[in-house]
Amino acid sequence: MQTKWIDDLLAIAETKNFSRAAEMRCITQSALSRRIKSLEEWVGVELVDRGTYPVQLTLAGQTFCNEGREALSAFMDLRSSLRRGERMPGRSIQVVAGHTLSMTFVPKWFTQFQQRNGYFTARVLAANVQEAVIALAEGGCDLMIGYSHPRAPILLDPDKFVGLRLGTDAFFPVSAPGADGKPLFALSGSPHQPIPYLSYTATSFLGRVVDLILHGQPVQPDLQRFYEADMAMHLMRMAREGYGITWLPESAVEEEIAAGKLVRAGGPEWAAELEIWSFRSIGNTNQTMIELWKSLERDVP
């Protein structure tokens, strides 16, 4: 049994709807259904009455929620207590950031922030958006930093978490240049000459943003999916070697563009603006995190 299954059931109890519960848990509805089924198999009884609308818990489900909520709270308190003993010494925070941001934005941001607000130590872990949200929700970090987009926002319970926008990052298509300096592959292609496409995996956040960009075009480009990865840095290397076109955050490719190893492969209509957000738990008692958050609120316009 996994503790996240308890949170899944609590989300259904609160929303009485699988779709809204899945959004709250930052997973797909099918994934939520599979996890609830796994929990029911572990318990040995049905916990959700799927024949009612709105969705209701069975009597066993209600009992499990009441007892599970208290048990989960006790486990989280115990884990937080143990982790406090494993923290880095002195003023320290634990951060989970998106893979790309952990390599581009976070190091520069920490340097600038420390220059203005004093020295602190940080343990930074890289994760995808879903993993980062779970880490924050389960007390696995003090601060989460990730990309967001108005049409693909990070959804967190405002009664439990608070967020601040730290900045923005351009997101646009790139390709390796040809001998003439122009992109080897550029939007749009033709049916007779499809564009080799280096894509993100279907569940990745940046992949969702690319889909939003493409669906907003009056004429769809003929993209032939050639390679797929969940990390921008993998796609950047493939694009640099001339394998196709991909979308990348500006912070990840600014050095390659300056060196002429990559060039933009489409106009502004093919680009989007990503927002960089930080989130923390309202119940976080790490004094260093509280002080840093107050400084963030003063510094961020």
Structure, briefly:
About 45% of the residues lie in helices and about 25% in strands.
Word description of this protein:
The chain is α/β, with parallel strands linked by helices and about 300 residues long. It folds into 3 domains: about 5-85, Orthogonal Bundle (Arc Repressor Mutant, subunit A); about 90-160 and about 275-300, D-Maltodextrin-Binding Protein, domain 2 (3-Layer(aba) Sandwich); about 170-275, 3-Layer(aba) Sandwich (D-Maltodextrin-Binding Protein, domain 2). About 45% of the residues lie in helices and about 25% in strands. It has 11 helices and 11 strands. The protein has helices spanning about 5-15, 20-25, 30-45, 60-85, 100-105, 105-115, 130-135, 205-215, 230-240, 250-260, 285-300; strands at about 50, 55, 90-100, 120-125, 145-150, 160-175, 195-200, 225-230, 245-250, 265, 270-280. The strands form 3 sheets. Strands 3, 4, 5, 6, 9, 10 and 11 form a 7-stranded mixed sheet that branches. Strands 1-2 form a two-stranded antiparallel sheet. The longest helix is centred in the first third of the chain and has 26 residues, at about 60-85.
Shape: globular
Unreliable runs: none
Alpha plus pi helix count:
11
Instruction: Give the second-level CATH assignment, the architecture of the largest domain.
Output: 3-Layer(aba) Sandwich
The averaged pLDDT comes out at 86
- Please report the total strand number as a whole number: 11
Q: Could you spell the SSE succession in H and E letters?
A: HHHEEHEHHEHEEEHEHEHEEH
Give the CATH topology of the largest domain: D-Maltodextrin-Binding Protein, domain 2
CATH class of the largest domain: Alpha Beta
Quote the distance from N terminus to C terminus.
44 Å
Overall structural domain count: 3
